[in-house]
Amino acid sequence: MADIHIDDFYRDCALIFLRLYSMFPRKGILYVDDISGPDEPDEFGLHSDRFVAGFSAMSWLAEQGYIQYEQAIKQEALDQAVLSQKAFMLLSSRSGLLHDEETIDTQLPDSVMEDSQSNINQLRQALKSRSSIRLKQRIRYLLTL
Q: I want to staple 78 with a disulfide (CB 3.0 to 4.6 A). Which of 45, 69, 119, 137 is the partner?
């Protein structure tokens, strides 16, 4: 049986990292809608399981020291969210995880070649590829460092 909720978690983590990296070092509001997609609460005001999972991924990353925030806005956003020093250094450093299909163009300038091998760019490429296996490998790699 496939654990779809774990694949969703990996995708959520990737989107959270990318969103906060694009704002770094500014603090900002991190909306669950931007991570798990829009959601309409039911007649009792409860969000869908998918939406709650997106918020839970944000909270988990904060508990593990990857992101910081000042306060939660209900279960809909994190206010004044920013990458921790640990996450920023991890995402901006060179990746030690390359796949066979990823060839390095040695004709590129060193700065471009180095940037293309950073963890954040490897994460962007994994999301762009739409491969859940590749994305899972990237996030698991990042979370073990």
A: 69
